[in-house]
Design a protein that fits this description.
The complex is a heterodimer of chains A (250) and B (353). Chain A is built from nine helices and nine strands. Chain A has 250 residues and is of the alpha/beta class. Chain A starts with 24 loop residues before the first helix and ends in a 6-residue tail after the last strand. Chain B is an alpha/beta fold. In chain B, helix 6 links the parallel strand 6 and strand 7.
Chain lengths: 250, 353
């Protein structure tokens, strides 16, 4: 069968995925590959891979990649971009990585308006380590470290990190999207391209938060996981543009 | 050659700029603040980037990023801040990324004090962070040596693709002395291994994570062979009045200068004392200490700690002769008179036996 769309240049072919069935990472990788190709920045792209499930994102992304210590992706990205401002830099991070152990790096790189794009995969758990409570875990959500459900008294509340950084003047673009279905995926790609274009135009920091299914750790089927994003997760983390400081077209 | 009168902390900065360092990331901590301040003024003028980071942790990871794309890059801190950098230094070692890290040591443990100390020897020479790696460590004893060794540290870092530490202390960092700087490097060769975006070639990858233990084992042995090369080629030390000596002091950094003062005093009384001063702490100059042991009666190790380099001396001596230790930890600074008293005492004990 001939594919209607050609295979993206920056998405590796003939590799086996290590991601679990129904995981959102593969979709987001593919969207990034398509977006950097369509914006013609793939040849100067460096993606910072996080500690977590996406640590070997370089197995799928056919761009230069560097590994970061847990939580330090945006510091590494700062170093890359400050040393080579002509490069196109993505810091790909999970919720625990970007919003717990790496909160300081996240907040300060955003506040400085560092000119790269952070992609935050929010699946409300620590995936790679087996489904522990993340900063984004919902109240009463059961995880392996909140066996009776997260309580505000013991664990505090789900952290809205993208809403926090969206208030910073250094942030050019911030949007929350999901990848639970074809329409959501198309909106996610558009959001990524908006963020990437903001970086290309030198406008400052951009961040796209992606509500991403983790059926295995949520103990759901992939279909149930998609539905849970619509019915529950996106109620706590509403989708939409959180900051847009791009100059308006005249 | 213009001689300048400059502090140790400023000299770190000027030597780095002359070595072609274009990027500095750091966080304020006493007693090394003048280094970051110097960089903030002079690095942008030299076409570089100074960035005050939100933490020492962030700074060392910014170093990782800048080094990955081929830049000569430096960070600096003092003892508590260096502890925070250790995670990042381990990643630099694992990723084989060159960088220069300056530690202007202060008293510890914990917050300690802001006086000069040498309590970070173990941390510096044993790797410091997690995993099986070593970091070359230069220990300057003067402002001139700060300039020379910082300059050299960038070459060593690039040559072996490794983080390199310059281990100084608050005394030498704050002290002003005449210094002649090496020539400024205008153009450095391209690093063929650096990330640069795939351009027209295949995509490149920098990772220290490999799920297969066999791959990590190979990587560790590769690093080990590199460290063997460094031990073979890069060991540095100074000997002072050792030719006819009966008793030899071993000390590094500012403690070695205090020991020199003590040796000058006791020599006036006819006591044949000398000094071996390790300039690289890793690789440690074990061979000269081993070789000299057969010719003398006793070693005295002086440190501004409770005895850390002492372990390396004992390993080198292998029980051949006695090794006496005298240390002042936590930021207490000894005097030449104090060291001289120790040398007199040990000399007399040796004469009696």
């Amino acid at each position: 069968m001939k594919l209607k769309n050609p295979w993206p240049i920056y998405f590796k072919k003939d590799v086996e995925t290590h991601y679990c069935p129904g995981c959102g990472h593969g979709i987001v990788h593919r969207l990034i590959s398509e977006a950097v190709e369509e914006l013609d920045v793939g040849k100067r792209t460096i993606c910072v891979n996080p500690a977590g499930c996406a640590v070997i994102a370089y197995n799928y992304l056919n761009v230069d990649c560097i590994e970061s210590a847990h939580g330090r992706g945006t510091a590494v990205a700062t170093g890359l971009k400050r040393a080579r401002p002509d490069l196109f830099v993505i810091s790909y991070q999970g919720d625990g990585d970007l919003a717990a152990i790496g909160t300081a790096e996240t907040i300060h790189s955003a506040n400085r308006g560092e000119c790269f794009t952070a992609v935050l995969i929010n699946n409300a758990v620590y995936g790679m380590t087996g489904g522990q409570m993340a900063p984004t875990t919902l109240l009463s959500q059961k995880t392996t470290t909140t066996p009776t459900g997260r309580t505000s008294g013991n664990d505090g509340y789900p952290l809205h990190i993208t809403d926090v950084v969206a208030t910073f003047k250094g942030v050019a673009y911030a949007e929350r999207v999901a990848v639970n279905g074809p329409a959501a995926v198309q909106r996610a790609k558009k959001a990524l391209k908006n963020a990437f274009q903001a970086q290309i135009d030198g406008l400052g920091y951009s961040i796209i938060e992606v509500l991403s299914p983790c059926p295995v750790n949520w103990k759901m089927s992939p279909i149930e996981a998609w539905k849970w994003i619509d019915d529950v997760l996106s109620k706590e983390f509403p989708l939409g543009v959180l900051a847009d400081r791009r100059p308006k077209a005249v | 050659m213009n001689k300048e009168f400059m502090s140790g902390n400023h000299s770190f900065g000027e030597a780095a700029i002359r070595a072609g360092c274009k990027h500095y990331f750091g966080y304020p901590i006493t007693p090394q603040n003048e280094l970051g301040e110097y960089m903030s003024e002079h690095l942008p003028k030299a076409g570089g980037v100074f960035l005050q980071s939100e933490s020492e942790t962030a700074a060392i990871n910014m170093v990782e990023g800048a080094s990955a794309v081929g830049a000569r890059v430096m960070t600096s801190s003092s003892s508590p801040g260096i502890s925070l950098k250790q995670e990042g230094i381990s990643y630099l070692a694992g990723l084989e990324l060159p960088a220069v890290i300056v530690n202007v040591m202060r008293g510890g443990p914990g917050l300690g004090d802001i006086s000069a100390a040498q309590g970070d020897y173990f941390q510096a020479t044993r790797g410091g962070g997690h995993g099986d790696y070593r970091t070359p460590v230069y220990a300057p004893a003067s402002v001139q040596e700060i300039a020379d060794l910082t300059y050299k540290a960038f070459d060593t870092a690039d040559k072996y693709r490794t983080p390199v530490m310059v281990l100084s202390d608050g005394l030498i960092g704050q002290m002003k002395e005449p210094v002649v700087f090496p020539k400024k490097i205008e153009k450095l060769p391209e690093k063929e291994w650096a990330l640069r975006g795939m351009g027209s070639g295949p995509s490149r990858l920098m990772a220290s994570f490999h799920i297969d233990p066999a791959v990590i084992e190979r990587h560790n042995w590769k690093l080990f062979r590199k460290y063997q090369e460094i031990e073979k080629n890069e060991t540095m030390y100074e000997t002072y009045m050792t030719d006819d000596a009966d008793i030899i002091a071993i000390a590094y950094g500012c403690t070695a200068r205090i020991a020199k003062g003590a040796i000058k005093r006791v020599r006036k009384d006819g006591i044949k004392a000398g000094l071996i001063r390790p300039i690289t702490l890793w690789p440690f100059p074990s061979q000269i200490i081993k070789d000299t042991a057969s010719k003398i009666k006793k070693y005295i190790v002086f440190e501004m700690s409770t005895g850390q380099m002492l372990d390396d001396v004992l390993l080198a001596v292998e029980g051949r002769i006695k090794v006496q230790f005298h240390g002042r930890p936590g930021g207490a600074i000894p005097t030449p008179a104090e060291f001289a008293r120790i040398i007199y005492r040990e000399y007399q004990l040796e004469s009696k036996s």
